[in-house]
Amino acid sequence: MGALHFKKSSNTNRLMLAFLLSNSTKSGEAFDYLRTGRYSTNEKAIEIASQGEKLVDILCYCVMPNHYHLLLKELRDNGISDFVRKCNTSIAKYINIKEKRRGPLFESRFNSKHIDTNEYLVHLSAYIHLNPLDIISGKEWREHKLKNWKNNRKELLNYSYSSLKHFLCEERKDPIISGEEIIFSQFKDKKEYELFLREWSEKISDDTGLRR
To answer: pTM of whole model > 0.90?
Structure first.
């Protein structure tokens, strides 16, 4: 974890752009285009990146004020390491130039966990999607004590830096997300996934290894 760089919407929006551009074998060309000058656009950079092959599927994500969570499926050899390195390098350069600072943004190397069961997969997706509750209502959800799901649901969906809307709202499609069928296939529909989130925040099994 590092400083609260992602409390600034401009920094967080740039990180989410990095999620799109870094996930491509043509990411170098896309980032080079952005650096060409004042007339370069994010849309064109995304178009360039989309012409390459994906390194990973981003199954879900959440950006918090001082860190971010990703659930990734590797598509190419070393895809996860390459993707995360590109994201961190890109956002560090952006913030360092903007804020006239030096050095890495994060205090340590990224932490990763191997997912070896479907149960762990869906529980990790819930943990990531519920993480903004730390800001919204406190950490009671981590102790199975979340109250008033209706109000918290609204706040979770209003949180701009998460893929939750892609999972709960039929009309919202997140361009960052791909391969999410591996999660959706575990549930009958989006309503059942939401029920899973609600139940998970109220009662979490100790064997998931996700409680902090």
So the answer is: no
